C-alpha cells in the first residue's frame, strides 16, 4: 500500500484524530494508538487497523516509554490543547531533537495560537467561527450544523491527513520532519474557499436558504415521496432541468423560467405535490440512468445494497458483519486494503509493542506492577 513502512503514534482522542489515524492505517501505515490507563473501551470507534498501547503519560517512566516509541516513528499525532504536550515533556522541540525526521501533527479546534487556542469547543463551535455555519440552514430558521462532519472530519481529520502526507513527501527532499498546526476552524474555512471566491457573482446574494445551492431553488433540494422516502434533485444546467421536467410529466412552455427566483417558492410546492404521488422506487424507475440529476436519498440500511455502490464495492463488511465505507480514493497501483478484523481492545498490544522497542520481559512486568502500563489480552473461554 501507499504508506507501507510508515509508523504513526496516535495519542487517543475523539473524532478528528482517530479518523486521521484510521485513514493512514487504511493506506498501509502502522498505527499505534496510545491509550490512557483506566480506559475501558475506544469511544471513537475509528480504530480499524491500529494497535493499542496503554501507558501513563503523567508519570516520568511512562513519558520515557513514549519517547522511546517516537524515536523510531515517522509521525506523532496528538489531539490536545496547546501546552499540554510541553507540560508532559513531550513537545516537538524534545521529540524532534531525539528524532529529526519525526513529523509532529497537532490537530486542535482553534489552532496552536490565538486567543481561543486553549478553550474548549466542538464541531459546531469551529464551524461557527469559520463563517460557514452562518450560510447553513433553511430560510427563516436558525443556522444549523450538518452533523459533526465538516469541522471534525473534513476541516480537521482529513485536512490533517493531507498535511501529514505533504510533510512526508517534503521529507524525501530535506530528510527532516516538521510541525503541523492543523486548526479545525481554518480547515473548514479553507474547504469553504468556493463560497468566498463566489461572493461577488450573485450566487449568494439572497438570504440564507433562498439561493441556488442552499435549498432555495426548486431544482436543487429534496422532496418527500409517497412512501415517506426522499429524492434529491440537482438539475442545475438547462439540459438537465429539461429532463427533470419531462420526468415529472410537466411541460417547459407552461412553466416560469428556471432561473426566475421569485417563482421558486411556488415551483417548490408544485414539485412537492408531484413527488408525493409516487414512491421512492417508482421515481427511481423514472430517473435512474438519465441525466436529470435525480437520485434517491439512501438510508444507511439501503446504501450498501444500491446497485451502483455494489458495482464498485463501495462498502465493506468486517468479520463482525459491520458495514462501513471502503477507503477513498481508489488508487490504481496501491489501493487501500483496510483491515476487516475487529477493532483492538484497549491495551491489547502493550506487551507486543514494548518488546519491539527492546524492553525485556522483566522490565515489562515491572512497568505493569508499577501501574505505568496496562495489558489487556483477549481471553478465550473454552
From TrEMBL:
GO terms for molecular function: alpha-methylacyl-CoA racemase activity. Catalyzes the interconversion of (R)- and (S)-stereoisomers of alpha-methyl-branched-chain fatty acyl-CoA esters. Acts only on coenzyme A thioesters, not on free fatty acids, and accepts as substrates a wide range of alpha-methylacyl-CoAs, including pristanoyl-CoA, trihydroxycoprostanoyl-CoA (an intermediate in bile acid synthesis), and arylpropionic acids like the anti-inflammatory drug ibuprofen (2-(4-isobutylphenyl)propionic acid) but neither 3-methyl-branched nor linear-chain acyl-CoAs. The keyword Isomerase applies. Transmembrane segments: none annotated. This is Alpha-methylacyl-CoA racemase. Residues 319-344 are annotated as: Disordered. The keyword Isomerase applies. GO terms for biological process: bile acid metabolic process. Keywords: Isomerase. Its EC number is 5.1.99.4. It comes from Cervus elaphus hippelaphus (European red deer). It catalyses: a (2S)-2-methylacyl-CoA = a (2R)-2-methylacyl-CoA; (25R)-3alpha,7alpha,12alpha-trihydroxy-5beta-cholestan-26-oyl-CoA = (25S)-3alpha,7alpha,12alpha-trihydroxy-5beta-cholestan-26-oyl-CoA; (2R,6)-dimethylheptanoyl-CoA = (2S,6)-dimethylheptanoyl-CoA. Pathway: Lipid metabolism; bile acid biosynthesis; Lipid metabolism; fatty acid metabolism. Belongs to the CoA-transferase III family. It is an enzyme of class 5 (isomerase). One of its GO terms (cellular component) is mitochondrion.
